[in-house]
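Support case: pyridoxal-5'-phosphate complex. Customer-provided input:
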Amino acid sequence: MTDRIYLDYAATSPVSDMAFAAALPYYKEIFYNPSSTHSLGQAAASAVERAREKCAAAIGANADEIYFTSGGTEAINWAFASVVGSQKKRIAVSTIEHDATIACADGLRSRGFTVDRVKPNADGIVAPSALEKAIGGDTALVGVMTVNNIVGSVQPIKELCAAAHSRGALFFTDAVQAVNALEINVHDSGVDMLAVSGHKMYAPKGVGFLYVRRGVTVKPFILGGEQERGLRAGTLDVPSIVALGAAAEETTAQRKINNAHIEAVRKVFLRTLECGAPVVCGRGINDIVSVVFNGVNGGRLAVALSCAGVCCSVGSACSAGSAVPPQTLVEMGVKNADSSVRFSFGRGTTVEQAAKAARIVNDAVSRLKGQIV
Ligand code: PLP
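Agent response - structure generated as follows:
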């Protein structure tokens, strides 16, 4: 695998050395059930609570506002499930949300909700004025992601949240792609709920959390035990949670250095791309870039790149295999969205790899040019 260049960090990241080392003792030495009341179980429980504090600190929250989940998708499902039974029967989401959010919002229709959709502008940004038009006093919940997973666009969360609150609606944000690059402070932005996933921030897959602001009521989501204050039953995955806490702390500590590194990588990558009249879609964090290569099919290009040793995607990993162009690009009005490929960079991407990958892209594009099907 070492000869491959991995440019798909938005799909998943490796577990960092620090997160891995933090988790290890909890597999064999301190393997106890954190719900056990004996002293060994309580050692595991203490580790979970320390991790909760670290996750909270990473987003400016209080520890009792963090609920561990199996990842971003579960956190999103939980946030939307919290409005079932509400007197208000409208939900508003942007049209560039992750599939999990779109599906959860649509799923609420069978519970009597209508779903209002808010389009982004050409840069992939959802304007607060557009949201204001889409919501009313009967809107229960608004969901807009902090950073889009296809173009990296950063949403004006504080303003969007204020617009939702001005109509009495709760505000949820999917911050899965945001935590590495952006400083997040939930008390400053005022969001009511926020989702984070471990595997996009150098922690394991299958772990994440939902932030729920004090005073906001969420319903029990998984039944069968008293874990997570009786709201999410099931024995906690202590090693993964400990790794998540370590990764959250590390991400905050390294953010400045990491962002400078990613900026350098992106610059070299884009500067070296020259074939197929590459068009960068939208504006956002440096970590994620979708590029349209006019005259080339994006799916074919991604396959050719994989064969040539560059691993990237067409749209999100969750929609991989779908023949339709990424919804985000379509909603932004990007021309030839089916000629797009997403590249995403991470801590392990070197400037040399970025330059080499761009040269490989140039070769692949010139070979494929004109072969659109
Ligand atoms: N939200 C966004 C923006 C994502 O990119 C992803 C993963 O691709 C998710 C949610 C889902 O997170 P998880 O894979 O932890 O379920």
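The chain has a mean pLDDT of 95.

Case will auto-close in a few days if no follow-up is received.
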